[in-house]
Amino acid sequence: MTPRLRHALLVALIAFCAGLAGAWVGRTILPAPESPPAELHDFLHNNLDLDAGQRARLEALESGFGVKKRALEAELRSNNAELAHAIDVEHGEGPEVTAAVDKSHQVMGELQKATLAHIFSMRALMRPDQAAKFDAAVTRALTAEGK
């Protein structure tokens, strides 16, 4: 094996490892924020005795939120790819890595705000007795230990 080929293979191996590291960082260190837990969704549909009008308005809200959520999640996946590339290029915490992390954090914040707006929109559909139960369920969901 010639020194030139050995050097090329070493560079390719380093680039591959950097790409793996970027993917790992994107999946573990910077996880996408989650939408309200499934328990909250189930609670809303099964424990609040919603009337037909409330159910119809809720379905419209959920449809609209689903579109926004999917768009933001796609943007997060794109940001993770940018982060992986930055890690591959810089092999450390350089300006491209920092910028990619900041960009990802911004989108995570947008997703969290959109999720909260969705929760408040759902709450606005409820009678006071339903809203009190929903508030308690939201508090439980936000303070529950990780599962």
From TrEMBL:
InterPro entries: Metal_resist. It comes from the Bacteria. Gene3D superfamilies: 1.20.120.1490. This is Periplasmic heavy metal sensor. It comes from Polymorphobacter multimanifer.
